[in-house]
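FYI - complex with uridine-diphosphate-N-acetylglucosamine, inputs then prediction.
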Amino acid sequence: MANRAAVILAAGQGTRMQSALPKVLHPVGGRPMIDWSIALAQSVGCDRILVVCSPAGEAVQDHVVELLGPSAVTIQDPPLGTGHAVLTAQDALSDFEGDLVVLCGDVPLIETETLEGLFAEVSSGATVGILGFEAADPGAYGRLITDASGNLEAIVEAKEATPAQLAVSFCNSGVIAASSKDMFDLLGKVTNDNVKGEYYLTDIVELAREAGGTCRTVSCDEAQVMGINTRAQLAAAEAAFQSRKRSQVLASGVTITAPETVYFSYDTDVETDAVIEPNVVFAPGVVVKTGARVRSFSHLEGAIVGAGSVIGPFVRLRPGAELEANVKIGNFVEVKNTTMGTGAQASHLSYLGDGEIGAGANIGAGTIFCNYDGFLKHKTTVGKNAFIGSNSALVAPVTIGDGAFVGSGSVITKDVDANALAVARGRQLQKAGWATAFRDKMAAIKAARKKG
Ligand code: UD1
Ligand code: MG
């Protein structure tokens, strides 16, 4: 296979988003748009990835540097069109030999196989490969003008198109591939002699044909190549992502009772024979292992649900919640940065933060791990098969030994030995007949006041 590189265009302002956050940092499926393009490039083996940024887009630059290092950023100043944008990567790729694909940072949902298909056109002899799609509403997209045998003759921007060309619904997704040498040779010949006065990347198609080359298209469904310019399009892309992910999860052998009510992230990993009940939200970083059940109205992020575990309804798992097999967590329990061993249970109304809970432990209703002193977080350890009585506060740092019992309503501030009972609350006292005497006394006082 030829070496591969990607140039990702992200120098646009994204003004139509009406946002302080740069467009390509808005998330789809829990991941910034630009990360989708980068992950796509990586998934097809691009070992060089360059992101074209505007000088003002510092947040985007910083983000790319964090992901790929400083050499991945090229600056386009001023923005003179998509062809000009790709040329900003020429110096950085001067030592690169292989195939180059241009992606757009605001087109997040292209699938790996689709891009493989495009590279295949280039490696099988096309000078330029274009990813096209049948647009429901071709609007401002560039039109793909093909000859009788399906070869691409030109890409005509909507603003330059004749009425006959505007009637064509086969459109340019903006994704274009060629050998790096052809790409930069052709771009060197592009002029800005057009309606917008810009250097159009799309002009390389006609230039390639004039030089005797062939240009071929690969097509995909519109849902993969929808570009995001507005919040409405962002919502539409989110819907497209959710729909695709739900289908994938169902196809992999997971029951989702009401798929349209379940929201996934790009990386949600649900294993075979898990069951997801209605109205569940998966923020990034969740793994649900085989046979587990996530009951309704639960919210999970950065968490592992062990095989056969049952959580919910109304459970919140926050980052670092790691449940081993057959754990049970019931309604209104929040778990953060806490591991729970096999068969451990917390069935009702608890906060379990910064803890380690041993296998078979039972956390009673209303237990709170008091993990924060206003400055630092501290750890609570509950041993195997320990039993924490309802409405107990475990003030961290604290350790409850294996098999120990904590009496209900305790505020535990000192470690408890294995197999001991700890009770830390006011001792109960009883006064026989006190209530009768109290009522008699108060009734007499009230009667005396009425008379007076
Ligand atoms: C472009 C295509 C059009 C295609 C459409 C698909 C050209 C000339 N036209 O049109 O055929 O149907 O995309 O969405 O290529 N960008 C830069 N620097 C620039 C200009 C643009 O980085 O100087 C980036 C933008 O941020 C964006 C991408 O390139 O990510 C596409 O630019 P945009 O202005 O949206 O191009 P379109 O007019 O939509
Ligand atoms: Mg656009």
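Residues 231-422 form a domain with the UDP N-Acetylglucosamine Acyltransferase; domain 1 fold (CATH 2.160.10.10). Residues 227, 229 surround magnesium ion (ligand 2) (CB under 6 Å).
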